[in-house]
Amino acid sequence: MEKIKRHRRTKAEMNAVKTNVTVEPTTENPDSFLERHKKVEHRGRPKAAPEPGELPTKFERVYEDKKTGIKSVWKYDSKKSKSGPYEVETVYPKDYDDTLPDDDNLPLTKRTWLNPANGKYVGYGRAVQLGLFVPEKGDGKRGRPKKA
Predict the structure, then answer these.
(1) What is the distance between the alpha carbons of residues 15 and 39, in angstroms, rounded to a whole number?
(2) Residue 147 banded pLDDT, cuts 50, 70, 90
(3) For residues 9 and 116, what is the distance between their CA atoms, to the nearest angstrom?
(4) pLDDT on residue 145
(5) Which tens digits make up the pLDDT trace of 48-71?
(6) Domain around 87
(7) How far apart are CA 58 and CA 86, in angstroms?
């Protein structure tokens, strides 16, 4: 038994069926249509990988902050580290002031206190726990005063 090939309708033939107009079928091979309209996907990384000789194995990147003048030099070497820089140098300008701003105008909960045990700055809650700061005690009553 021989298989019967079915003819695919073109857009013109489909429109003709809707409008009741007769159109002669095309003599185009249905396989050539599929070849012309083959789906090509362009997802993922490109197939061609860069040549190993094209990429440098050692290089540096210099980042400079215009506002503060701090320079960071990031050193890369693919033989030492493949995932990132193996060394970062930070260069501060001579007149750079790294002290914290004055806390006098800030509320107590936003200020910082120096912990003498380790030389680090701590916030309000930790300063009270360590005894670096003793909050003022009120009259013991919380909330809004009651009406007399």
Answers:
(1) 25
(2) confident
(3) 86
(4) 76
(5) 666 666 667 889 999 999 888 899
(6) 58-91
(7) 11
d(CA 102, CA 24): 89
Contact 17, 11 (CB under 8 A): no
Whether the pLDDT of residue 148 is over 80: the answer is no
For 1-148, strand residue ranges (E) read 58-64, 71-77, 87-91, 113-114, 121-122
SS3 58: strand
- Residue 63 inside a domain? The answer is yes
- Please name which of 129, 125, 132, 97 lies closest in space to residue 110, comparing C-alpha atoms: 125
Domain count, the chain: 2
22 in a structural domain: no
29 domain residue, yes or no: no
Residue 117 lies in a domain: yes
Taking the model in full, what pTM does it have?
A: 0.36
Q: Say if residues 23 and 11 touch (Cβ distance below 8 Å).
A: no
Per the listing, tokens 């030389």 go with 119
Q: Hey, what are 112's tokens?
A: 């910082």
- Per-residue pLDDT reduced to its tens digit, 113-133: 888 899 888 998 899 999 888
Instruction: Please tell me which residue, 20 or 51, carries the higher pLDDT value.
Output: 51
